[in-house]
Design brief:
The complex is a heterodimer of chains A (509) and B (487).
Chain A (H helix, E strand, L loop, with lengths): L1 H29 E5 L5 E6 L5 E8 L13 H8 L12 H22 L7 H19 L6 H8 L3 E7 L4 E8 L3 H13 L6 H17 L2 H13 L13 H4 L4 H11 L5 E7 L3 H12 L22 E7 L4 E8 L7 H12 L5 H9 L3 E10 L6 E9 L5 H17 L4 H17 L4 H15 L4 H10 L3 H11 L5 E8 L15
Parallel strand pairs in A: 2-6, 7-11
Antiparallel strand pairs in A: 1-2, 3-5, 3-6, 4-5, 8-10, 8-11, 9-10
Chain B lengths: L1 H16 L26 E4 L5 E6 L5 E9 L12 H11 L7 H9 L4 E6 L3 E9 L3 H13 L5 H17 L4 H14 L11 H5 L3 H11 L5 E7 L3 H12 L21 E6 L5 E9 L1 E2 L5 H13 L4 H9 L6 E4 L2 E2 L5 E9 L3 H17 L4 H13 L8 H14 L5 H10 L3 H11 L6 E6 L14 E3 L8 H6 L7
Parallel strand pairs in B: 2-6, 7-13, 7-14, 9-11
Antiparallel strand pairs in B: 1-2, 3-5, 3-6, 4-5, 8-12, 8-13, 10-12
Helix pairs in contact in B: 2-5, 2-8, 10-13, 10-16, 11-12
The chains are: A alpha+beta (509), B alpha/beta (487).
Chain lengths: 509, 487
């Protein structure tokens, strides 16, 4: 015990000197930020370890921005951003453009008939569906399938992908450093002239993604119901993957208007990290991204979730084994207490010294795993701090709930120990350092912090904020947040499968 | 001074951008300068007199030191009646603590330093490793060595690990993707193959603390260990430390490699009905080959063209053209020291299950009718060769490559051989491996899905065997006659 106390100040000192002297200074020297005339923010960080670079395009729009009755649209556009441009993926763009316009006209007519509540003419509907599909077949004649992805792969691209979150959409891959200009061309034209070719087939791909992630997965099924129940007013109550009926209704025209509204240079941040020179890279980026037209900033205001004044419960009778989750509304990430929530999540969940592991898993032996975390389903707006536990066989979700509540009460009523507080702070610093060692990781962190806080240096300052968290803060925030009326509970209760009526299977059930 | 530098850099920028002011209209016009020569730093290889092989890879970018020891022998060597032993061993090795400190004490000791020491069990090896700040290296390395030399495997932690394993068994039929992967592995390698078999309540329950101690004594011998360290250290000083800490450890007996039989299931159709899903998980599997086969490079090119990426045949046809799947892929399987598994994998809505199987068959058949052509081969080779740098763009990747080659007895320059091997692949090579390794009538086709909603019954394809995945209940429950198995 004594030795541990002795070693703490030393560690803190070492970390402080590392993080704040060496790293910030080194990053200041190697990192250049520029806002282009059209509003696009660009970060270039020189890291000449090997002749490669990574980039990260952060678009400050996600599924929260999905229009009414068009859930899943932000994610759908993300898929379409791999379909090419007016110069990539087409054999004859001017003819293809005309053909794609006909697809939209035909689809609009088909939808109008399909969605008629009264007086739908099934013969007419079949005819309109056929015209729409014929128009698609016509447009498909001009497609060079997946040419965009093919170029990236053939030129040595690594880890090409994209993700849509509630608050943001991100695109990334890595290239050998001699492909910098090619990359700039590909990434800029993708967001300058995206073409919605093969939209309705890709929509089917996205529907399969929904089936895989949500419909056919018990945890997916529970989480969708749980989040939907927790938010009554804010857009967070809608699933990012989209409801099935919306997925079967939105159009390529819808995706393009989403793009027009949100893929605005001033709403995007681009980070490039690797074996690149800031000056030449900046001029290549200006050359290709400069022509992106300036557009008005999108309106980020949303309905504010009103205070929850009664507990909500979602109980899924499912074939799967039991699961318990509960969530409490907390403020968005810009709140002054954000770091306190981070500290609570770390204290409750991180590693074998965490409180939930020690009590539910190690001591009470009732759970296989348990943790608490923020960010459900996003962080920008007020969201959930959630706790979950997987009960061991023979233990019920109710026991999980009771045990988690004991731990929550402890947070509210007694101070955490000195060791615990130091662990949280030391870990935050070490985790920061561990995140600095790769081009991909750095590109994503620099772009994300720049976009979320307006300054990439916040990556380092976030550790300062954790450092300022006090024992009293933790008690206060726990007391304000983790209260019954502010809670939504989600449970999987195992339902036994219906037995086929077979006389061979005797015995009482 | 600063202003002068600024003016100078502005001048350079202007000069450099002048010739390129015109924006290229077509991607193909953009010049690609040669990639600068890059010689990745090689780790220093040391063999201790007791047979331990050590790789030291200096990397001074961040003040961290990470290491991992890979120890020969894994779950493929455990007795079938104790299936899961090595998983438990891998967990309890760390949580059970050392002679001087319990696992819980280690947790406190390490977490206050934001350090990790972790162990795990695998199929052909177990590992023990650490990650720490440079300043804490001595503190953390001491724990690592104690775990190697005197682990305690305390019973309470074995019981905890067993409870967790029981939980894993009880949940193993909840997710269709996991069911599909697990059962396809059994079809490809044989249900009793040690890579494919899964722990049961009885086999987990049969493992004792003595089993873990015996395992450790038998396998954790210096001559069985490859240790790799990367980070912010001086190799000479580190070598001296390692020689001091590990050099006196006496060599142990060599452990035999297990003799393993690979016996694929009969080709044909296998189904696992699951009525709470609206998508089918489809897997077609067969035995592949090894990476030291002369066919390996042609297989790599074939796989890239057939099922590898955005522009592979499977992705283009099944996902892009037909919109039948979100995830689809496949290829001829290879592995270092055992035959890999040739597989085609996709998920599709229940209502297009049979259509999707037919579509996969079409893509296999098309390999004969329209073999992978020159353009596809060029694309595949370009993809592999242009991205080749990403195999060794960090010191840590180089270290891990070398450790893998050392472990499997491959030449340490295998990566270089790979590059020239891929360069030499011809169209005829690709056609040859395709016809040698991929046959629709040799594949075992497994579907996990909601059979009532299929577009056609699976029997329309041929005779179908249903696989029973119900979980054998724990002995206690069996005796009581309760427990409805979950599926």
């Amino acid at each position: 015990m004594k030795r541990r106390h002795l070693s703490i100040p030393l560690i803190i000192f070492v970390l402080h000197s590392i993080v704040f002297a060496q790293d910030v200074a080194s990053f200041e020297k190697r990192t250049t930020v520029k806002k282009l005339a059209n509003g696009l923010t660009v970060i270039v960080c020189e890291r000449p370890e090997a002749p490669v670079f990574s980039f990260y395009t952060f678009v400050n729009a996600g599924s929260v921005q999905d229009p009414y009755a068009k859930t899943g649209l932000a994610h759908m556009f993300e898929h379409m951003a791999f379909k090419g441009t007016d110069t990539i993926g087409t054999t004859d763009y001017s003819a293809e453009k005309v053909a794609l316009a006909k697809v939209e006209t035909a689809y609009t007519a088909y939808l109008a008939e399909r969605d008629k509540m009264v007086g739908q003419d099934s013969q007419k509907l079949a005819q309109l569906e056929k015209s729409w599909k014929d128009a698609i077949a016509d447009a498909d004649k001009f497609v060079k399938p997946n040419e965009f992805g093919k170029i990236v792969e053939q030129e040595g691209g690594e880890g090409m992908n994209a993700s849509t979150y509630a608050d943001k959409t991100v695109y990334f891959y890595s290239f050998p450093s001699n492909r910098l200009e090619l990359w700039a061309y590909l990434e800029a034209t993708r967001f300058q002239q995206p073409v919605m070719r093969e939209f309705y087939k890709e929509r089917n791909v996205v529907i399969e993604e929904r089936r895989m992630r949500v419909d056919s997965n018990p945890i997916g099924r529970l989480v969708e119901q749980f989040v939907t129940a927790a938010f009554s007013a804010h857009q967070y109550h809608r699933p990012g993957i989209g409801w099935m009926s919306d997925l079967n209704s939105f159009s390529a025209t819808d995706a393009l208007s989403f793009y027009d509204r949100y893929y605005v240079p001033s709403n995007m941040v681009l980070a490039v990290v690797g074996d690149v020179k800031a000056d030449t890279t900046m001029s290549v980026i200006e050359k290709y991204f400069g022509p992106l037209p300036t557009k008005p900033d999108p309106d980020e205001r949303t309905t504010i979730e009103p205070p929850q004044n009664s507990e909500r419960r979602v109980v899924l009778k499912d074939r799967a084994q039991p699961l318990y989750i509960e969530g409490y509304h907390r403020p968005g990430y810009l709140d002054k207490d954000d770091a306190v929530y981070d500290a609570i999540a770390d204290l409750m969940s991180n590693g074998r010294t965490s409180r939930l592991y020690r009590t539910l898993v190690r001591d009470k032996k009732i759970a296989a795993d348990s943790a608490g975390f923020s960010g459900m389903p996003g962080v920008k707006y007020p969201h959930l701090f959630a706790f979950y536990a997987f009960p061991l066989p023979g233990h019920s979700p109710q026991e999980m709930s009771d045990a988690i509540h004991v731990e929550i009460e402890r947070l509210k009523t007694s101070d955490i120990s000195d060791e615990e507080l130091q662990m949280i702070k030391t870990r935050a610093k070490a985790n920061l350092i561990r995140g600095l060692g790769s081009n991909e990781g750095l590109a994503s962190q620099l772009a994300t912090y720049q976009a979320m806080y307006g300054d990439w240096r916040e990556l380092f300052k976030s550790v300062d904020r954790i450092d300022k968290v006090t024992k009293a803060d933790i008690r206060r925030v726990a007391g304000e947040t983790f209260i019954t009326a502010n809670r939504t509970v989600g449970i999987i209760e195992t339902a036994t499968p219906p037995k086929p009526a077979s006389p061979a299977q005797g015995g009482a059930q | 001074m600063k202003r002068f530098l600024f003016a100078l850099s502005a001048l350079i920028t202007l000069t450099l951008s002048l010739p390129a002011l015109a924006q290229y209209k077509e991607w193909g016009q953009i010049p690609i300068p040669p990639l600068p020569a890059f010689k990745p730093q090689q780790p220093k290889r040391i063999v201790l007199p007791n047979g331990m092989v050590i790789f030291l890879q200096e990397d001074h970018e961040l003040p961290l030191i990470d290491g991992v020891a890979r120890i020969r022998g894994g779950s493929t060597s455990e007795p079938a009646a104790k299936s899961g032993l090595v998983d438990l061993y891998g967990e309890v090795w760390r949580t059970g603590g050392t002679k001087s400190q319990t696992g819980d004490q280690l947790d406190d000791y390490l977490e206050i330093r934001a350090a990790k020491v972790e162990t795990s069990g695998g199929a052909d090896s177990t590992t023990a490793g650490w990650s720490c700040l440079k300043a804490d290296f001595d503190d953390v390395f001491k724990v690592f060595v104690e775990l190697l030399r005197s682990p305690e495997f305390r019973t309470e932690k074995l019981e905890l690990a067993q409870a967790s394993a029981f939980d894993g068994i009880s949940r193993r039929n909840d997710d269709m993707g996991a069911i599909s992967a697990r059962e396809a592995l059994k079809l490809a390698y044989g249900a009793n193959n040690p890579y494919a078999r899964v722990p049961e309540y009885t086999t987990i329950g049969a493992v004792t603390r003595q089993d873990l101690l015996d395992w450790h004594k038998k396998y954790v011998q210096p001559n069985n260990i490859i240790l790799g360290i990367s980070g912010d250290f001086d190799s000479a000083a580190m070598e001296a430390k390692l020689r001091q800490a590990l050099g006196s450890w006496a060599k142990g007996p060599t452990t035999p490699k297990p003799v393993i039989e690979y016996k694929s299931a009969k080709p044909g159709y296998y189904v696992i009905p699951k009525d709470d899903v609206n998508q089918s998980a489809i897997r077609m599997v067969d035995l592949g080959t090894m990476r030291n086969s002369p066919d390996y490079y042609a297989i790599e090119v074939f796989n890239e063209a057939f099922g590898g990426g955005f522009s592979s045949r499977l992705f283009l046809d099944i996902r892009t053209k037909r919109g039948l799947a979100y995830s689809v892929g496949g290829g001829i399987g290879t592995n270092f020291d055992r035959p890999g598994i040739t597989r085609l994998v996709m998920g599709t809505k229940s209502q297009s299950t049979i259509e999707a199987i037919q579509a996969l068959y079409d893509d296999i058949d098309s390999l004969q009718k329209t073999p992978i052509d020159d353009a596809e081969i060029k694309k595949a080779k370009d993809s592999i060769l242009n991205s080749f740098i990403f195999n060794f763009d960090t010191p840590d990747k180089v270290l891990r490559e070398k450790m893998a080659y050392e472990f499997y007895g491959y030449p340490l320059d295998f990566l270089e051989q790979y590059r020239s091997g891929v360069e030499k692949v011809t169209k005829a090579d690709v056609a040859r491996v395709a016809s040698k390794y991929l046959h629709r009538d040799k594949l075992a086709v497994l579907v996990v899905g909601n059979t009532k909603e299929f577009d056609k019954p699976m029997s329309s394809l041929g005779s179908v065997s249903e696989i029973d995945i119900s979980i054998p209940p724990p002995p206690a429950e069996k005796a009581a006659g309760a427990a409805a198995p979950n599926n």
